[in-house]
Amino acid sequence: MSDQPLTLTRHLLTREETTTPPEDLALVMERIAVIAKRISRKLIHATLGGHLGYSGDTNVQGEQQKKLDDWTNQTFLEVFRHGYPVCSIVSEEMEKPTHYERNCRGRSYAVLCDPLDGSSNSDNNGLLGTIFSIRERARGHGFDASDLLAPGSRQVAAGYVLYGPATQLVFTAGAGVDIFTLDRELGEFILWREKVKMPRRGTTYAVNQGNASRWHPGMRKLVEHMTSRKDKASSYALRYCGCFAGDFHRILLEGGIYIYPGEVLPDGKVTNGKLRLMYELAPMAMVAEQAGGRASNGNVDILDLTPTDIHERQPIYIGSTEEVTLAERFKPES
Ligand code: AFP
User: For the chain, does the N or the C end have fewer beta carbons within 10 angstroms?
Assistant: First the structure.
């Protein structure tokens, strides 16, 4: 490690390129870093501590909650209770935003999050993540989230934490993508890579191929195209771990594409897939674009979509420019 480890907070306070005041970003990210450290520590002790399995509750999406889903969501709420200048939390696990009036002074922000991404991996020691998006609240906003229903291009910052062999925090505030690794002895996120660039083309694709019988014909043709190359050098390998943050991280560093398409139901109705626009897709799209990659719903760039609901879902094609542009050519969603 370098003799002069650059911590997340110092890095944020000493850069000049963002339009959002660096002090605000540092205050918000200090809270997110505390949450990430708490989750990282909890996960290390989760197996022997009896924190695995289902809680018996379902979330707003009708999905069964794991004990860790609930715990990580509560951790967000506890830590941001004293989280000025963040006055609202929007989470996958809560139907409505939680609002902290005491933090609402002057310029204020909302944090939108998937507290534990890939939670089905929690019972098998697999990869897990936390995805976050930071948006500035409109002056005079109310208790609801209506002012937040704006395109992802309005995010002021976004990123994710990946709990793997190392805990890493990936962050962008619109001036490139930086990756920090948690030094457990120091208890600090230390800058590992600055202004990361995603390769223009990759050699892997990530998709739940078990759903293929419900894909649109265009989506099936796309995967057929990607897997039909005879020469090994230009063919794609399938890599899918069931944690968006984990699959995306590989693509950020090595290139390729992650896909979660819409599905055609037996009655012919078409779904928007599984992933949520505001706290899963928009933040990852901001990271992808800032690293030189792309994110599309098959027709429109993810960052141009205006959500109509905080829990809206959209199909996603995200990763290297070449693969996302190739995917769009197959019109996978029509
Ligand atoms: P959770 O955030 O509810 O755990 O869902 C994980 C996820 O949204 C994403 O991280 C995975 O890539 C995707 O779902 C996996 O879904 P399938 O099990 O349908 O492949």
Answer: N
